[in-house]
Specification:
The complex is a heterodimer of chains A (about 300) and B (about 425). Chain A is about 70% helix and about 5% strand. Chain A is mostly helical and about 300 residues long. Chain B starts with a helix and ends with a helix. Classes of the chains: A mainly alpha (about 300), B alpha/beta (about 425).
Chain lengths: ~300, ~425
């Protein structure tokens, strides 16, 4: 018996499967199975104890203003967060990597802190800071410099602004850490030889730092696109129960609103499937564009 | 590295598989020494206080059927999400649960997972405001017990009216209201009132009092009815033509921005249900003695002077292992005379059982509310309190009015009342 098990474990043919088995089980249990049942549910009307197939009705209902609003908000949000969350953390990482900066370890720690705080906790603080009317903190500051109070939570662009600010505030630290580790893996010799060739700091940044950071940038970009389209927390913490005219409605929020709040799991599933298609397509396109699928040269 | 990942995955699976087992362990209901364990979810800390009080007297009066009730509080939206998922999946629901009327219709779809309560309701039904049972019923079966009437009234700030030299007792129609508002605005610079723009008050009571609603008695969508359009137009005119009303700071009466605004005398009156009294007491201390409660003005003769808005239906779930005991306790806590008096003394809710409305506890003058007996107002309109129809599409209808109608019409002005209501109604009809 013992020998049989040993043979089995040491065989080149079967052993690998044993080792990946835990992953395969969890992957099929928590990913494949839910995805398949979501696809099935997206063709159904799902109530407790009564499930009926309704064909493409859920998908037909998707052609609605709210759904397009959600897609628009998601795209804008993703573009805006990425246009802050890649360049600014790179610059900060370069500064933190420089030996000239005093107390850089302290700065690293402080900049990383926001990402340790739960989105709901920090979101509640943001929500109160950006309270509407003249009593909100930010509005009371604005009034001191002569700007009229802004209805942060009741209008589209101010609403977008506070969602993007919360995300940028929260995720900068993580991206800085990614870029710092990337910077530290760049060989110092490259900079030394550039110095000998007489390159200035800007040239060194543009022709050495940036190209060598490319793999990290692609990684951050990929997770940021995914993160942008999967955004829910910011919207949920600002507009807990309801929002005026879809201003903070993202696709995931739309799923939540339809599937949970309005108890229509079938419709929610069809939105989820469309979201999956969008994010999958975008990431494939982007990875292809950056040549990830090509063989290493 | 790979080993670590594999190990991590294995651990994750172990955790995921065992967690539900631990969670299930807490729900076991073994009568230990004649005491039965029940659990309950509520979405408001005040409600928990009320049930705690009712539990103590139940245990005193029923030594043979003692209950050990654990009450868990969750935020409003989160509690209902949890409830939906646990009823949907068949495990984890509590014995008793407070369900907000905004969500109640969600639980009346499909195979209903709430216990029918007619056994305890029918014997006392005629002592209650009937419409408060109807909102938690489907096909003649009652699934939730009401917590209050939620009669909509107007809270007048007497200080501001005195300054303007206007007598709010003379306001009988919404036209009187507009005229008085103009005088108040001219004399004090303070707007007469404000409307919720990310929620649905006073739009909802204003349409229901004159026979409008989102859904009719059979659950059909009537959101775009002539009455509704006319009423929303009148609200628009109050804001933009007569300039006596403004969009509420923060957008709704439950927002932190609104309380200091009202507290500082930012508006002359507020149209809200009776249960909002508790918010006055907790959040607006400076208005003590200045607030006077009166019935709603009407649009045209024959209108009702109050509408029951909002509500919490308390239900027993079919997952309970002690359905009978849970139902009996719930009936004790919600239907008895004594409990209905407690609804007022502990929560300041207008109890749905009207035969307690002239009890001395309820008629005692209230120093916060002009040292008047607030209940006299309610007794005066007792037979006029209607409630909206709570049918299957109600949760979705309310959500649509909140998010797609009020703000777009009243603030953005991007759609006319007719356009916005028609669009929302169409959206709603697709859900049939």
């Amino acid at each position: 018996m013992h020998r049989v098990i040993n043979n089995f474990l040491y065989s080149k043919k079967y052993a690998p499967y044993i080792f990946v088995l835990p992953f395969l089980i969890s992957f099929s249990l928590f990913f494949i199975y839910p995805i398949i049942s979501t696809i099935i549910m997206s063709f159904q009307k799902v109530y407790i104890g009564s499930v009926t197939f309704i064909g493409l009705d859920n998908y037909k209902r998707l052609i609605s203003e709210s759904f397009f609003n959600a897609i628009r908000t998601n795209i804008l949000y993703t573009v805006l967060t990425i246009s802050y969350l890649i360049p600014i953390p790179i610059l900060i990482a370069v500064a933190l990597n420089s030996k000239l900066l005093v107390g850089r370890n302290a700065f690293r720690a402080v900049l990383f802190l926001p990402s340790l705080i739960s989105i709901i906790v920090s979101g509640v603080a943001f929500r109160l800071l950006f309270g509407t009317g003249e009593f909100g903190f930010v509005n009371s500051l604005l009034q001191k410099i002569g700007v009229r109070p802004i209805n942060w939570l009741l209008e589209y662009w101010p609403g977008m602004f506070i969602m993007v600010s919360l995300a940028c505030w929260r995720w900068s630290g993580v991206n800085i850490v990614y870029f710092l580790s990337g910077l530290q893996s760049i060989p110092k010799e490259l900079y030394e030889s550039a110095d000998i060739d007489g390159a200035n700091s800007i040239n060194k940044f543009l022709y050495i730092t940036l190209p060598l950071l490319k793999p990290i940038i692609i990684y951050v970009l990929t997770i940021s696109i995914y993160g942008g389209f999967a955004m829910f927390g910011e919207s949920f913490v600002y507009w807990n129960e309801t929002m005026p005219g879809d201003i903070g409605l993202t696709i995931v929020r739309f799923i939540y609103q339809e599937a949970i709040q309005r108890n229509d799991l079938g419709y929610g599933s069809s939105i989820g499937i469309v979201l999956l298609t969008i994010v999958f397509g975008l990431n494939i396109m982007q990875l292809k564009f950056f040549g990830i699928f090509k063989k290493e040269q | 590295m790979k080993k670590k990942i594999t190990l991590g995955v294995v651990l994750l699976i172990v955790c995921l598989v065992t967690t539900p087992l631990f969670a299930g362990g807490a729900k076991e209901t073994k009568p230990a020494g004649g005491v039965t364990k029940l659990n309950m979810w509520v979405f408001n800390a005040l409600h928990a206080k009320f049930y705690q009080d009712r539990l103590e007297s139940w245990n005193k009066e029923n030594p043979n059927r003692k209950i050990d009730l654990s009450i868990e509080e969750y935020p409003n939206v989160e509690m209902h999400n949890k409830l939906t998922l646990s009823l949907q999946s068949g495990v984890g629901a509590p014995d008793l649960v407070d369900i907000n009327i905004n969500f109640f219709s969600n639980y009346l779809k499909g195979d209903i997972q709430l216990v029918e309560l007619n056994r305890v309701v029918d014997p006392v039904k005629d002592k209650f405001v009937q419409s408060r049972f109807e909102i938690y019923s489907l096909g003649g079966k009652v699934y939730g017990l009401p917590t209050h009437v939620g009669a909509t009234v107007v809270y007048y700030n007497k200080e501001i009216f005195d300054k303007a030299g206007v007598d709010f007792n003379k306001i009988k129609t919404w036209n009187d209201f507009i005229e008085a508002g103009k005088k108040v605005q001219a004399a004090t610079g303070v707007p007469m009132t404000s409307f919720e723009v990310i929620d649905q008050r006073p739009f909802w009571p204003m349409i229901v009092q004159r026979g409008g609603d989102y859904l009719d008695k059979d659950g059909n969508v009537v959101l775009d009815s002539e009455i509704n359009i006319k009423t929303l137009q009148a609200m628009f005119d109050m804001m933009h033509t007569h300039k006596i009303a403004i969009p509420m700071p923060g957008g709704a009466t439950h927002r932190e921005e609104f309380w200091p605004f009202m507290n500082k005398g930012g508006q002359a009156c507020l149209i809200m249900p009776m249960w909002y009294m508790s918010r006055f007491l907790s959040y607006m201390p400076d208005l003590k003695g200045k607030i006077y409660v009166r019935a709603m003005p009407i649009w045209e003769p024959g209108n009702k002077r109050s509408v029951g808005i909002g509500g919490t239906g308390t239900s027993v779930t079919k997952q309970s292992k002690n359905v009978n005991l849970a139902v009996d306790f719930l009936a004790y806590a919600k239907l008895t005379r004594e409990s209905n008096i407690k609804l007022w003394t502990i929560l300041r809710f207008d109890p749905p059982r009207w035969d307690v409305w002239d009890a001395p506890e309820l008629l005692a003058p209230d120093p916060y509310f002009g040292n008047e007996s607030v209940f006299k107002v309610l007794l005066e309109v007792k037979d006029e309190i209607v409630s909206p129809n709570n049918k299957l599409l109600s949760a979705a209808a309310q959500d649509l009015v909140r998010s797609q109608v009020m703000y777009k019409v009243l603030v953005e002005k991007s759609q006319t009342p007719a356009e916005a209501l028609k669009k929302a109604a169409e959206e709603l009809r697709k859900r049939k």
